[in-house]
Amino acid sequence: MKRGSLLFLSLILVFLTLSTTAFGQQRQATTNVQSIVIEDFDNPEESRWLVRGSKFIAEGTPNVGWVRTWPDALYRAEPEGRELRSLGIEAAFDRKGYNFLEIIPVNQDDEGNVVPDGLPIPGRVRNIDMWVWGSNHDYYIELQLQDYRGIVHTIDLGGINYRGWRNLRVNIPTWIPQGVRYVPSFRGLELVKIVVWTRPYEKVDGFFVYFDEIKVTTDIFEEPFDGERLADPERIEELWSSAEGAGVNNDQEGM
């Protein structure tokens, strides 16, 4: 091959390499991925959960308590100034089958009634994990996440047929919507329920299960733009409450 042809070929390869690199840099999205604990169960007064059983729940159960125990994998010793706890549940059912326990985050309304109140998940969540203590019963756990449309998605967290504490994790499917193209574009998910299911062949005459530290891995980056504060609901309320001439204007005279 002639020297001129080699030089021409080399220039083409360099151009293609630079173009590919530049294109790759342009296509790379900015992210800010963080691990955030959305519930640690350490403060019973702030950590409000309702636990209820399905049809054949045994009388006197479930018993629920915020107990002074935690996974050694998280803390070998209790940190100074903190009182570590986990959510403990004792339950039993009168017969085998697909029985279940529902663990629901709740709050009180203005009239003092206990109402469901989902745990908001910051950012665009990629996965969720929690520590669960199992007593080697062949049960399994589902998570229920609600999107901005009010649709609830059920996700399998996994089985708890093991002994002791274990960290269970699940990736959040990309088909669950967490945003729209309009401003504000972010539409976060909420954890509305944890469900413990028993399998039909497994004994159900009495068992314990404990939960600790619900954590998410999530991307909290939002693309900045001029006027982004006008997408903040609190800022909008503040601006419009003090706006001159604000109000409904249906007067069409003179138009």
What does this structure look like?
It is a single chain. This protein is mainly beta. The protein has a single domain (30-237), classed as Sandwich (Jelly Rolls), CATH 2.60.120.260. It has two helices and 13 strands. The chain has helices at 3-27, 233-241; strands spanning 33-39, 49-53, 63-67, 86-91, 100-108, 114-116, 119-120, 124-135, 139-146, 152-159, 163-171, 190-198, 207-219. The strands form two sheets. Strands 2, 5, 6, 7, 9, 10 and 12 form a seven-stranded antiparallel sheet that branches. Strands 1, 3, 4, 8, 11 and 13 form a six-stranded antiparallel sheet that branches. A hairpin with a 5-residue loop joins strand 9 and strand 10 (152-159). 18% of the residues are buried. The model is unreliable at 19-27 (pLDDT under 50).
Using brief descriptors, characterize the structure shown:
single chain; 255 residues; mainly beta; Jelly Rolls; 7-stranded antiparallel β-sheet; 6-stranded antiparallel β-sheet; 2 helices; 13 strands; 13% helix; 38% strand; elongated
* Radius of gyration based on Cα positions: 26 Å
The structure class reads: mainly beta
Count of distinct structural domains = 1
From the spread of the alpha carbons, the general shape counts as elongated
What is the level 1 CATH name? Mainly Beta
What's the CATH topology name? Jelly Rolls
How far do the termini sit from each other? 79 Å
Summed up, the helix count is 2
Helix content estimate: 10-25%
Following the backbone from N to C, one meets helices and strands in this order, namely HEEEEEEEEEEEEEH
What portion of residues belong to β-strands?
A: 35-45%
